[in-house]
Amino acid sequence: MAEPIHEVMPGVLHWTARHPSARIESGSHYLVEDGILLDPIAPPEGLEWFDGRRIREILLTNRHHTRSAFELQDRLGVTVRAPQTGMHELPADRVQPYEFGEELRAGIRPHAISETWPDETALEIPGHRAVAIADGVNNYDGLGFFADFLLGDDPEAEKQRLRDGFAKLVTEVEFDHLLFAHGHPIIGDGRERLRRFAAG
C-alpha cells in the first residue's frame, strides 16, 4: 500500500508507490534543505506536490530507477544524475553521470557495492548520517534480497558478493540511518543492522 509523503527524520521525507512496470512498492526520498530527490516515483499526492518546492537535483542510485525522474525533470527543469557505469542504458541528453567516489551536491558520495552489479550504488549522505541503497538489499519484512531469479545464474554467489560489498561499506562509512529504494527506512541503528545482515 502506497505511503504518502511524510518526514522520517528531520529534513528527510519518504514516500512509496507501486512501480508501474515492476509492480513492486518502491521508495523515494526528498532531502528538503539540499533540494535533492532520490529515486523519485510519483507520490500518492501527485507530481504537482513538488511544484514550487526547492528541487535542485535528482539522484538515481542505479540506471533502473528513472521512475518519474524525467517527468519531474520536464516539470521542474532540474538535472538528473546517475552512475557512469549505468549510462549505456540512459539517454545522455537527459542524464549527467557521476563517478563512484565523486563528491556530489551536499557532500553526497556514491559507493560501489558489487562488480557484478556495476551500477549498484550506496549514496553516503553525511549531512543526515544516512546511506541510500539501490537494489542490493531491501527492507520489506526485515533486510533481505530480491528473489533468486533476479540474481543471475548463481544466486548464492551473488548474495555473498553483495554481503561483501555491504560489509566493506559499513567498515568505511560512518552512518546511522538507511534509506531504501525498496522498503522502509531504518532510523537510528541502520549501520549495525546492515553489518549483521552482511555477516550472514
Quick tags:
seven-stranded mixed sheet, alpha/beta, Metallo-beta-lactamase, Chain A, 200 residues, four-stranded mixed sheet
Describe the structure.
By secondary structure, the protein is α/β, with parallel strands linked by helices. It has a single domain, classed as Metallo-beta-lactamase, Chain A (4-Layer Sandwich), CATH 3.60.15.10. The chain has helices at residues 69-76, 155-172, 190-198; strands spanning 6-9, 12-18, 25-31, 36-38, 57-59, 79-83, 95-98, 109-114, 117-125, 130-133, 138-139, 143-144, 177-180.
* Poorly predicted tracts of residues: none
Counting DSSP H or I runs of 4 or more residues, the number of helices is 3
Tell me the strand order in the biggest sheet: 1-2-3-4-5-6-7
Instruction: Kindly provide the radius of gyration, computed on alpha-carbon positions and rounded to a whole number of angstroms.
Output: 16 Å
Residue share in β-strands:
25-35%
Mean pLDDT over the residues: 95
State the secondary-structure class: alpha/beta
Main β sheet profile: 7 strands, mixed
Termini gap: 29 Å
Give the oligomeric state: single chain
In total, how many beta strands? 13
CATH evolutionary superfamily: Ribonuclease Z/Hydroxyacylglutathione hydrolase-like
Tally of domains: 1
Gross geometry: globular
Return the string of H and E elements: EEEEEHEEEEEEEHEH
User: Roughly what percent helix?
Assistant: 10-25%
